[in-house]
Design a protein that fits this description.
single chain; alpha+beta; Structural Genomics Hypothetical 15.5 Kd Protein In mrcA-pckA Intergenic Region, Chain A; Pseudouridine synthase; 3 domains; eleven-stranded mixed beta sheet; five-stranded antiparallel beta sheet
């Protein structure tokens, strides 16, 4: 039987967090008791209950969660938000510097002239101020109202700038799952164009080099049938409405995206989900990866008993 002492596990503390490397299999509670001998069992239970323990940057609350050699356990010593799934926002990860959430469709990212109250930004900002009125949340990127999936927010202006700079340099990787109209012939491909925006705020493509902002989008077909295709989309650039415009250019607009050519709406929403997010932590430099499930609404259109997406 392996010891749960893990005395050789490297321990580093960076500001408001402690990083613990797992060198041999152990249960999470036993590991934390061994690595934090000055903390009581009740204190560790409290850390777990308040979402302050992560394994490989995934929040874990179960005391008996099994650990594997090579994993990293992160303790955040400041309390984090727990989110409110009933309001359409679920916290996926939080530390003193960043906040990663999953939003549901129908919720705006930030306020507009018509909607100022029920937005992701307002919900997160209000929750942050509950623990300290000085806390602030900063938007890094937006997600359309009718889309769903992963979003990242910063907790300071400096971190916001670092994340936005990383996005512009292509250091942040995002992948989307979409359902488009019609059956896409090619299994994979790349769309490249120069994007422009007209006075009606409609983004469109120009094929003239340097006539607008260059945009590159990779796509891969996951499943197809006569009327719809399930696809994974990986944009190489970060441009407004890039994915929506490029799928329209393929003559396979996103289902439910009337603004960009869709005539069908089988899910009563835009069939775009931000599924995957990868980046380097703007403060400690660690590689972060987050992934969510494909919405069941999408999968119901493609029944498959042997599905492995």
């Amino acid at each position: 039987m392996h010891s749960t002492k893990n005395e050789s596990s490297p321990k580093t503390r960076k500001g408001k967090q402690t990083f613990l490397s797992v060198v041999e299999p152990a249960g999470l509670m036993a590991f934390l008791l061994a690595q934090l001998p000055d903390k009581s069992r009740n204190t560790i239970k409290s850390l777990l209950a308040h979402h302050q323990v992560s394994v490989d940057y995934k929040i874990i609350t179960q005391f008996n969660h099994p650990l594997k050699a090579g994993q990293e356990v992160i303790i955040t010593w400041t309390k984090v938000q727990q989110g409110n799934p009933n309001k359409g926002v679920r916290v996926v990860f939080e530390d003193p510097y960043i906040l990663v959430i999953e939003k549901q469709p129908g919720l705006l990212s930030i306020a507009t002239d018509k909607e100022k109250q029920r937005t992701v930004y307002r919900i997160l900002s209000d929750q942050a101020k509950e623990s300290d009125p000085r806390n602030r949340i900063f938007v890094v990127q937006r997600l359309d109202r009718d889309a769903s999936g992963l979003m990242i927010f910063a907790k300071s202006k400096d971190v916001q700038q670092l994340l936005q700079d990383s996005s512009q340099k292509g250091l942040v990787k995002r992948k989307y799952i979409v359902v488009v109209e019609g059956s896409v012939d090619q299994d994979q491909g790349v769309v490249t164009s120069w994007l422009k925006e007209n006075t009606a705020r409609i983004v469109y493509s120009s094929n003239i080099p340097n006539d607008g902002q260059k945009a590159v989008t990779r796509y891969r077909v996951l499943k197809r049938k006569k009327n719809y295709t399930l696809m994974e989309i990986e944009p190489e650039t970060e441009r407004k409405n890039q994915v929506r415009v490029h799928l329209k250019d393929l003559e396979h607009p996103i289902a439910g995206d009337k603004k960009y050519g869709s005539i069908q709406n089988p899910m009563n929403r835009m069939a775009l989900h931000a599924r995957f997010l990868e980046l380097r932590h703007p403060v400690n430099g660690n590689k972060l990866q987050f992934e969510t499930a494909i919405p069941n609404q999408f999968l119901y259109l493609f029944p498959d008993k042997n599905r492995k997406y």
